[in-house]
Structures are given as C-alpha cells and as structure tokens.
Amino acid sequence: MTPIRILGIDPGLRRTGWGLISVVGAKLTYVDCGVVTSDGDLPLALRLRELHEGITRVVSGFSPDEVAVEETFVNKDAQATLKLGHARAIALLVPALAGLPVSEYAANLVKKTVCGSGHAEKVQIQAMVKFLMPKAEFKTADAADALAIAVTHANHRGAHALKKLHAPVAGVSGLAAARIAAALAKG
Amino acid sequence: MTPIRILGIDPGLRRTGWGLISVVGAKLTYVDCGVVTSDGDLPLALRLRELHEGITRVVSGFSPDEVAVEETFVNKDAQATLKLGHARAIALLVPALAGLPVSEYAANLVKKTVCGSGHAEKVQIQAMVKFLMPKAEFKTADAADALAIAVTHANHRGAHALKKLHAPVAGVSGLAAARIAAALAKG
C-alpha cells in the first residue's frame, strides 16, 4: 500500500501549527511538525505574507497528499474571531493553490477523535498524540494540535471511521490499542 | 508628475469589489473597476483560491502602485465576520505577495472621506464616486465601494488631507468642487 502523507494545520495569526503524518492503512507514522509564526509588529498584510511563505515552504518541502485544517472556533470576541479567520484563509489557500484536497474539521471533532471526548484539554491531546505516534516530537501545543488534526483526517477520510481508534488494528500494537480503548472509555 | 495608480478593494467572500484610479496631485482619474466572485457551492478552500486568482489577475493586469483595502466591519453575526475575514485575508495577501504597500481604511472613514459623513448610504457613495470621477462605470455597489476606498487612500496617503475634497483643487472643476463642498456641508 502506498503511504498517504497528511498535513494537519492549526491556524493562528501569531502561530500556525503544522504536523505531517504518514498513513498506511490504519498505521500512523509521525513525519515532522512545527510552527509558522508571524511578527506581531508588522502590518496585517505582511503578517499574512509571512504565514503564506511559511505554509508554502511546508507544503512544497513535504509534498503532502491531503491537507486537514481546523475549523475556527467562533467565540464572543469578534476581533479574535476575525484574526483567526485571516490566518485560516491562508492555511486553506496555500494547499488549494497547490491543487491539494483540503478537509476541515471542527475542534471538538478533533478532540473526540483523538481523545474520545469533545471537551478534552490540550494536555490530553498532547498525551494522546504522543501515545499514537511515540516518535512525535512537538515543542508547542499548536504543533501537537496540528498532528491531532492530521490524525483526525486519517480516521475520517474515505472508509476510515472513528471506531478504528477503539479497536486493535494493524500498526497499533495490542498494548497501545488496549490503552487507547481504555483512555477512550474513560474520556 | 508621475501618476500613481491606486487599487481599492472591498472584500467579500461572494463578491470582492475592486476599483482602480490614477492620481496626479489632487486629480483623480477613473481607470477601471469590477467584481471578483467565488462560487458559493464550492468548498471554502476553492472559493478562496478563486478570489486569489481573480485578485491576482487584477493586480498583475493593472500593476497598481498602492493598494487600499476596507477594514472588516465586525458585526454581531460572528459567522459572517469570519467569512469576511477569510475574503479580506486574500485581498491583503495578494498585493503583499506582489510587494505592494497595502493600507487599510475603516468603512466609516471611507464614507466620511467621500461623502462627508461616516453614516452615508451606499447610494450616496455611488453618487459621489460618479461625481468625483464622471467617467466611472460601475455595475455593482461593491465596485463603487472599491473606488471609494481608492479615493479615500488618494486623500489620506502622504501629505493629502481630508480637506482637499472640500476646497476647489486642480483636477476638480470649480462647479464640481463647489457641489462637493455643498454636499459635504449637508452631510
């Protein structure tokens, strides 16, 4: 089976997290992750250009097959929502310009897929990402979130279903699968 | 004096208006205007790509020297604010990628500059744009708004001040200047 490379993106104007995984069947392998930042002292147009350049570097450097972007959580702070919308537009645009399919996932679906609960804390997401892909090395919550988004897409694309995470499947050792099942049951 | 070409952009996810004017001193000349649309049936990433392609065509086709983009009006509908933010990011990004200076203007400053009142109606803006540049031909309010944004930038860039619109100046005939002054006084 040919591996599918999935790029997850967690957009933010100041910090946009990205995480790349490789998927063969149900086996998830960590490839790389990081954060693209923009300088808060620059005008908005230049900040968006920085994000565009950074995400373009990631997309052309790693040549993902599919891209998944987190949907913006619309909160009461309209200005914050607007800023996120600006960053998110760039995260959607760059892979679309490269002709890649882009999927969008709500934050609570990402949490539910990875942790079993739509209300999981950031630290739980990080623990589960590390758990699913022990080689994953992330320095920031944004990068871990981006990996979680990629994992979510791996489980929802095509015939893949959420329950795959619950059952012992190829590529996840029996112990890990059992621990995942236990963690999900608790969640 | 070398003419300065100013591109005004009124961003919107469904329709992004654009208007190009040429400025020599205080003389404003209409060049062209139009609307870039995106197909509401497409996924968001592809809609943003459509806007990107359309605005890129305008920027590369007309080679403006400076670009002005309307600031998003943050209203109570957070989802609508978010959509506008997505479109606006593309309107800011494209000229920034082309290395052009991008200025941002609040909607009420545009209204105040062009009509003399921050609460002017769309039809007043259209009338004043037509008044300032009789050759302007716009089919939509979005294109007229974009021209108004370009006019606003023409009046606020460098040493240009709002009062220029009030006084009879080179490039605006005495009658027009007087009528503008009268309209502003009423506003």
TrEMBL record, chains A, B:
Gene Ontology BP annotations: DNA recombination; DNA repair; SOS response
Cellular location(s): Cytoplasm
PROSITE patterns recorded: RUVC
Active site: D10, E70, D142
Entry coiled-coil feature ranges: none
Sequence positions that bind Mg(2+) 2: E70
Cofactor note: Binds 2 Mg(2+) ion per subunit.
Cofactor entry: Mg(2+)
Cited function: The RuvA-RuvB-RuvC complex processes Holliday junction (HJ) DNA during genetic recombination and DNA repair. Endonuclease that resolves HJ intermediates. Cleaves cruciform DNA by making single-stranded nicks across the HJ at symmetrical positions within the homologous arms, yielding a 5'-phosphate and a 3'-hydroxyl group; requires a central core of homology in the junction. The consensus cleavage sequence is 5'-(A/T)TT(C/G)-3'. Cleavage occurs on the 3'-side of the TT dinucleotide at the point of strand exchange.
Subunit structure, as described in the record: Homodimer which binds Holliday junction (HJ) DNA. The HJ becomes 2-fold symmetrical on binding to RuvC with unstacked arms; it has a different conformation from HJ DNA in complex with RuvA. In the full resolvosome a probable DNA-RuvA(4)-RuvB(12)-RuvC(2) complex forms which resolves the HJ.
Family membership: Belongs to the RuvC family.
Name by which UniProt lists this protein: Crossover junction endodeoxyribonuclease RuvC
Organism listed in the record: Methylobacterium bullatum
